[in-house]
Amino acid sequence: MGASRRIELKSPRDLEQLRRSGRLVAQVLVAVGKAVVPGATTKDLDVLAERMIRDAGAIPTFLGYRGYPASLCASVNDEVVHGIPKKRVLTTGDIIGIDVGVTLNGFVGDTAFTFSVGAVNEEKKSLMEATQEALRRGIAAARVGQRLGDVSAAIQSAADEKGYGVVRDFVGHGVGREMHEEPSVPNYGTAGTGIRLEPGLVIALEPMLNGGTWRVNVLSDGWTVVTQDGRPSAHYEHTIAVTEQGPEILTTCSPLC
């Protein structure tokens, strides 16, 4: 979604605000995930997310962004990202990628997770597992002194091992007072290239893996991205801070959330 701005290395005070935004958006995602059941509509999920965000005194970051009409993205099966919540009814065997952002006290939290609707087939299960592994590898590589290409290459390695397509048209990004800041974080790349990672850099890593080709199309609504070959797609995202102690995942919450 959209353009980016210059890199900002975050101060300790900024990082604390980003932690709060991250915790809130994680709580919203957990609640939405519990509502992902057969018979629910993607619009139901959007209504739930917006109510939680506003009740917490925050703003749904996605709503109105470049004209986007909802508070979250709900992408089902072959939809990669930016699926618009409507009256689509979820059925057993579907997978749905939920991407949500909040702005709390001027700071953004951004996260995504692909949920299964009941039991899913092995094709979808394997794709989801590989995409989660790609995110884990990317986070592990986001250490002070490493280069951005190390993160991208780590993500890509998980896809390459399984023969999945890594989406190239949409990438991760910096996060702060705006949803999209520099740097862009591709999910593919060459180790040892790109900017050097420094303490205070906050980025959203969001691998998007397709069961077949990496190539995608955008539907006539101008938002919904689908795989060209109709195979399923999975999407996971965490906002992380690069710190001297290692990568810190900001978009997590306690088991009580």
What is this structure's SSE topology?
Elements: H1 12-34, H2 42-55, E1 59-60, E2 72-76, E3 79-81, E4 95-104, E5 107-116, H3 122-141, H4 148-162, E6 165-166, E7 172-174, E8 181-185, E9 202-205, E10 208-210, E11 216-218, E12 225-227, E13 233-235, E14 238-243, E15 246-249
Antiparallel strand pairs: 1-4, 2-4, 3-12, 4-5, 6-10, 7-8, 7-9, 9-14, 10-13, 11-12, 14-15
Helix pairs in contact: 1-2, 3-4
Summarize the structure.
With 257 residues, this protein is α+β, with helices and mostly antiparallel strands. It is 28% helix and 26% strand.
What would you note in describing this structure?
- With 257 residues, the chain is α+β, with helices and mostly antiparallel strands.
- Helix content is 28%, strand content 26%.
- The strands form four sheets. The chain has a five-stranded antiparallel beta sheet with strand order 8-7-9-14-15.
- β4 and β5 form a beta hairpin.
- α1 packs antiparallel against α2 and α3 runs antiparallel to α4.
- The longest helix has 23 residues.
- The chain is globular and about 45 Å long.
Q: Level of helix content?
A: 25-40%
Give the tally of β-strands: 15
Rounded Rg: 17 Å
Number of domains: 1
Structural class by sheet pairing and helices:
alpha+beta
The residue-averaged pLDDT reads 95
Instruction: Report the sheet with the most strands, covering strand number, pairing sense and barrel closure.
Output: 5 strands, antiparallel
